[in-house]
């Protein structure tokens, strides 16, 4: 599981850098400042959670079942939150009906919050 988490964190981090460069260099010709700022929020949260996964992989004091739960929450949250933000920020460039995915951003954010909460409560319950 640890290897899977590290690989996923590295992959999500790599994609965040690629998307960040894409937004900063290519999309700035086509998007408004507001749309670029929105796109950047997706990149930022994606990178935060790539680092979170790498941190999670170092924890030896958390049960594997709990680690899997946190991992699944974070990965789904990043896909829904950052993915939907990328689509919403670039909707002026596509014919995709972004109304279909409006629910994805808050759902993804909620999953990310729950992932952090599970980690918090797990550590809080441990006696040190």
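^ structure tokens above, recovered residues below v
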């Amino acid at each position: 599981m640890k290897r899977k988490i590290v690989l996923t964190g590295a992959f999500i981090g790599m994609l965040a850098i690629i998307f960040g460069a894409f937004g900063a260099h290519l999309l700035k010709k086509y998007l408004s400042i507001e749309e670029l700022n929105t796109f950047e929020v997706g990149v930022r949260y994606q990178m935060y959670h790539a680092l979170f996964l790498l941190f999670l992989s170092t924890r030896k004091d958390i049960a594997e079942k709990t680690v899997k739960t946190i991992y699944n929450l974070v990965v789904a949250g990043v896909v829904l939150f950052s993915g939907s933000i990328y689509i919403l920020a670039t909707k002026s460039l596509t014919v995709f009906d972004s109304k279909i995915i409006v629910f994805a951003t808050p759902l993804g954010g909620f999953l990310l919050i729950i992932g952090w909460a599970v980690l918090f409560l797990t550590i809080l319950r441990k006696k040190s």
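The mean pLDDT is 93.
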